[in-house]
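Hi, can you check this record?
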Amino acid sequence: MDKTYKASDHEGKIYQKWEESGAFAPSVNGKPFTIIMPPPNANDPLHVGHAMFISVEDIFIRYKRMQGFSTLWLPGTDHAGIETQFVFEKKLKKQDKSRFDYDRETLYQMIWDYVQENSEVAINQMKKLGASADWKRKKFSLDKDVVEKVLDTFIQLHKDGLIYRDNKLVNFCTRCGTAFSNLEVVHTEKKSPLYYMKYGPFVLATTRPETKFGDTAVAVHPKDKRYAKWIGKEIEVEGLLGKFMIKVVADEYVDPKFGTGVVKITPAHDFNDFEVGKRHKLEVKQVIGFDGRLNKHCGEYAGLTVFSAREKVVEGLEKKGLMEKIDKDYVHSVGSCYRCGRAIEPLPLPQFFIKVKNLTKTVLKALKEKKVKVYGSGHEKILKHWLENLNDWNISRQIVWGIRIPVWYCKKIEGSELAQSKIGLAKARSSEPCYVVSKDKPNKCSKCGSTTFARDEDTFDTWFSSAQWPVVTLKTGKKSDFEKFYPTDLMETGYDILPFWVMRMLMMGLYSTGRVPFKSVYLHGMVRDGRGQKMSKSKGNVINPVEIVDKYGADALRMALVMSSTAGNDKSVGDETIRGMRNLTNKIWNAARFVMEFLPETANNQGSEEPFSGSSTNSSPQRSGLKGVPSRTDLSQQSSKPSSFEGDKEFEEEISKIVNEVTKQLEDYKLGLAAETVYNQFWHWFCDESIESAKEGKVSYPVLMNGLKTFLKLLHPFVPFVTEAVWQELGEEQLLITSKWPI
């Protein structure tokens, strides 16, 4: 053995040997154990969060593989809809271009080519981290067979009455040019002025004076005696564009304690107002366009951005004496786009929605019946909360990159504001148009007889296709994969996407198959820097996993990420922690060197013995391959003693306890504790105590060697490269990755 262990000299060669051996593929025999990999974005390099999930999942896969399970870790990548298109649009911007400079087909092909150019980056980085996934089964969310399955699910949902189209308010980002679901809106408490405006006979408070042009009523609480006489009447209001009449309605939505107890109702630009409008049959008057600017209904203010318009409107109201006062210290929740940070605009838009009530009921029932278990303190309760309060899911997105919705409209209706706004939708604009749901262009509409069709240009929400990931990856994989490996055993992912992905996978898996898509959910936390701070480029504290691997080795990063971690909690990792785990790899290497140098001359000829398996050492010889290794002359005489040494029995009993402890911790998904146990026991008990006992003649060579081999097996899932390197130095014919777990 070399005097020192250099990760860079071993990791690439070892990974190639693993891959060429076929070790990553599930065995023919053995009980199945399956993990479907959370697919990273196909065009993005890995970040430290990816390194965390790769480390965690690979540990469980290696552990179960060594236990004799037929393990399948199915990898894949995601097209990542808006994420990828947003990145590509930034690239176009550097070329003084935009997505609107290209037709739909050209833009899609450009993004496709861009993704293909970068598609292997993430895969190669995962391999550098030691991911023992079955790469021959790798799937991409835009693979033709995957797309077909996703379309089939939509069509079936529509047939079952769970898909509907409606023209109602959605969360719209005017920068990204698309709608989002409620889950994708980031709500933050912000200080924003509360404006008290004179409004006919009232004074009312609002944070959005610029939407006054779209007001179609004012509302009061039905039990508010202050305004009882006005309910049901029309009032004259002085506006910036002249006087207008507006109705006063009574609705329990109104909080009498907010402002003056009178609120303006703008159904086109506020979710609560929209519901009030439906109850009172109010006009939905849109005054903010999909470009984020005031439209033609706003007179001289048309063309202004929302925030510019707000300033100008306030100025205008003050000039006309219509502004009573301004509370500049008002704090309220403001929704913003999770992708670009721009304020979300509630805007009316025809979209496709999934009715979620019955779907969520099935998931709640499965949780109650313990058909799926969530590992992560308090997160099962959080999951139930989301399920109990989930609104119908808007699955339409106004982007090119993704799976196009299989809906055909019997005719185009041109001239709508949306059609003119560069979003480029080719669909009917009425709330209930005549349309056909079909993967292929229909010949004739059964309802109206039309033979002229235009396909909906919207794509599915990425989460709609990824919600089907466990089902579609197995159903489009090798023959009988679905029958053998579904439901999967473990879904491991970050707790931050519990409502985005995990919840929806449960909904769609149960809908499609009648069974949960996975039996257990392991949620890892956010990876923070050594000081516990969130990583960000602006702080300069971002850990690049590839750079860390190049500097310290993959084993050091893996162990640093999982050491003492707990499901559902954040993990702090700094350079010092990673260096400490690099020291562990050196410790393993140096301990092996000592044991091998401790080898008596007689053992070179006799071979080594099987690693400890929970019982006394057996005597079946194995090829050691250690001829020529120098022995310690002062200890070689010990080997000739026919009986075991005084410390052998105690050593074997202790290592049996360690094996049982680590095994139980892994079975209970206490990953961080298992890592901590094997680290401490190897470092302190084996290296510091047992080796010293061997030096003192209390532990025999065969027992010490078996102890080393046992620890190599216990450590292998966590630090696979250095343990495999040592294993091969011992001359073992079988790879450590496919060797038997010591219990």
Remarks:
- The domain at 193-329 is CATH 3.90.740.10 (Isoleucyl-tRNA Synthetase; domain 2).
- The first helix runs from residue 7 to 21.
